[in-house]
Amino acid sequence: MTEVQVDAGEVRSTAGEVHEVAQMLRVARVHDHLSAIAQALPGSRSADVAGELATTWEDATSRWAEAATAHSQNLTDAAGDYDDVDRASAQTQQHLSARLTGPMPQ
To answer: Which residues are CB-neighbours of 75 under 8 A, at least 6 positions away?
Structure first.
């Protein structure tokens, strides 16, 4: 039988880090700076490209931040599930140990 060990605290920590990066990306507002470049160079090809890049950047980072936030929540939920399974397993083992006599099979 294969054994899998998961540190739910580490999973929660990772979830927090992912959430923090998503929040940082949201407040960085790089697209505002790109839009400012476009406004500073009216009528130029550079302004057009900077404006397009601002829109693309905003759309992509918004989608990524939403996905990262969902991923963070999924990790948090998974950590809770691992804890629940560990608790249930410990309770089952205690229940069986209290009712069985003799050595436990390995």
So the answer is: 11, 12, 14, 15, 18
